[in-house]
Amino acid sequence: MAAAATPPGAEDLRARTRRLLDQHPPKTTAPADFLDARFDAGLAWVHFPDGLGGLGAPRALQPVVDAELAAAGAPDNDPRRIGIGLGMAAPTLLQYGTPEQRERFLKPLWTGREVWCQLFSEPGAGSDLAALATRAVRDDATGDWIVSGQKVWTSSAHLARWAILIARTDPDVPKHRGITYFVCDMTDPGVEVRPLRQITGEAEFNEVFLTGVRIPDAHRVGGVGEGWRVAQATLMNERVSIGGARVPREGGMIGPAAATWRERPELRTHDLHQRLLDLWVESEVARLAGERLRQQLAAGRPGPEGSGTKVAFARLNQAISGLEVELLGAEGLLYSDWTMRRPELVDFTGRDAGYRYLRSKGNSIEGGTSEVLLNIVAEHVLGLPQEPRTDKDVAWKDLTR
Question: Could you say which of 122, 202, 204, 238 is catalytic?
Answer without folding.
Answer: 238
